[in-house]
């Protein structure tokens, strides 16, 4: 039979048959420009397929078939030789079997450990809201004067419903424990749709990891670790940490193990669906400190000046800069206490990057290396330190605009 029929008979591709011919596991005769496969080739192929099922590599199969062809397995010493190869493989598989059984046992124990943690967490779900001790830090984003609570519903020292009002007419609602402060202009900035219709606007952590190259995941981990290294981890008691644009919570999740019971962690985003997702996650899994949830344009946060011990800006400037010609950090510096720190992390590109052409002209200074570093240097902060995390080519279906471009990551910290 010819190669196509031969491949089809054994449910293989023609390319596979040709590869076996190239490495001379199959030696069909050629006539008239075509190869012909007979009983000898069928016998060889059956032997190849059986040896593959026994986990022999192609080079090992070459050794076995080569010896068999030359010796024809006539004598006892020939059979002893082949038996030795089979016995070696059996010993290797026995060892692999023991290792797999050991790994299966470890996996079983790890799964049991996770299941037992879930059982504990399932009973710890508690609804939360704006803790009444945080009212002193709320202020009108227009006048910067204290806000008055009206029609407040307070449960376990948490404000879960009501609204805050200013004499100037400003109003922020408390909806299911979330401070919502969005005017019509802010709501227009919330993009629910994705450039790729198959991708959700805000991926869960699991979805993001599945759709992102491992090198970027590790780069994100190193970047967040660099931010945490700028913080005084042993002195977080009674500290207020304000995270700008919490999003899906990448920074927060990596940081949670460091917060203290008396810490206040302010989750912010302009998308209330993301806030609700993070709030539900924390209520189910982690309430070891006081959380405050604020849905607002980040430049109009209803927080009193000089309130935060730390402001963390993890990649939030990147998106904000596409819609504004102002450096977000400069807008938020007044919110930091004297002696407090602003720690930022963002990407930049080299001056020749094609990405600069797709960025709005007014925003390019926040992406191009020299201009961006100048913006950081000119922040109204003291003792500004900068750490280069390194370069990364973005490979993620969730980073549509940046995918395929090379970015450099910079972490910086300044003290007020």
Description:
With 416 residues, this protein is an alpha/beta fold. It contains 14 helices and 14 strands. Strands 3, 4, 5, 6, 7, 8, 9, 10, 11, 12, 13 and 14 form a twelve-stranded mixed beta sheet that branches. The longest helix has 47 residues, at 76-122. 30% of the residues are buried. Residues 192-200 have low confidence and may be disordered.
Indicate the topology.
Layout: H1 3-9, H2 14-22, E1 29-31, E2 34-36, H3 39-53, H4 58-71, H5 76-122, E3 130-131, E4 148-155, E5 158-165, E6 171-175, E7 178-181, H6 184-188, H7 205-210, H8 214-229, E8 240-243, H9 250-255, E9 264-269, H10 272-285, E10 290-296, E11 308-314, H11 316-320, H12 328-332, E12 336-348, H13 355-358, H14 369-377, E13 382-393, E14 406-415
Parallel strand pairs: 7-10, 8-9, 8-11, 9-10, 11-12
Antiparallel strand pairs: 1-2, 3-5, 4-5, 5-6, 6-7, 12-14, 13-14
């Amino acid at each position: 039979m010819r190669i196509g029929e031969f491949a089809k008979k054994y449910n293989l591709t023609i390319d596979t048959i040709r590869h076996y011919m190239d490495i001379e596991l199959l030696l069909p005769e050629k006539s008239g420009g075509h190869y012909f496969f007979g009983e000898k080739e069928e016998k060889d192929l059956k032997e190849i397929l059986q040896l593959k099922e026994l986990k022999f590599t192609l080079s090992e199969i070459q050794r076995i078939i080569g010896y068999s062809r030359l010796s024809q397995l006539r004598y006892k010493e020939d059979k002893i030789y082949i038996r030795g190869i089979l016995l070696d493989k059996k010993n290797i598989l026995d060892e692999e079997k023991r290792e797999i059984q050991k790994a299966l046992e470890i996996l079983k124990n790890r799964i049991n450990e996770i299941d037992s943690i879930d059982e504990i967490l399932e009973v710890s779900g508690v609804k939360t809201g704006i803790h009444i001790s945080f009212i002193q830090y709320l202020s009108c984003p227009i006048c910067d004067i204290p806000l008055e609570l009206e029609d407040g519903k307070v449960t376990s020292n948490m404000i879960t419903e009501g609204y805050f009002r200013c004499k100037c007419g400003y109003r922020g609602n408390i909806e299911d424990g979330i401070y919502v402060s969005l005017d019509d202009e802010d709501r227009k900035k919330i993009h629910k749709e994705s450039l790729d219709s198959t991708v959700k606007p805000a991926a869960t952590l699991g979805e993001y990891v599945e759709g992102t190259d491992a090198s970027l995941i590790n780069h994100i981990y190193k970047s967040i670790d660099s931010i945490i290294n700028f913080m005084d981890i042993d002195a977080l008691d009674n500290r207020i940490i304000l995270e700008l644009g919490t999003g899906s919570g990448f920074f927060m999740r990596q940081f949670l193990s460091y917060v203290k019971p008396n810490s206040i962690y302010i989750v912010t985003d302009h998308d209330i669906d993301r806030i609700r997702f993070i709030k539900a996650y924390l209520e189910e899994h982690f309430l070891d400190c006081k959380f405050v949830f604020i849905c607002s344009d980040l430049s109009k946060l209803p927080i009193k000046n000089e309130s935060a011990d730390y402001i963390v800006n993890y990649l939030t400037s990147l998106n904000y800069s596409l819609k504004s010609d102002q450096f977000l950090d400069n807008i938020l510096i007044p919110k930091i206490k004297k002696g407090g720190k602003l720690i930022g992390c963002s990407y930049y590109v080299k001056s020749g990057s094609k990405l600069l052409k797709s960025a709005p002209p007014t925003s390019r200074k926040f992406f191009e290396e020299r201009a961006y570093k100048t913006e950081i240097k000119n922040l109204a902060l003291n003792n500004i330190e900068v750490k280069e995390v390194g370069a990364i080519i973005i490979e993620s279906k969730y980073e549509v605009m940046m995918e395929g471009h090379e970015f450099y990551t910079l972490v910086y910290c300044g003290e007020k």
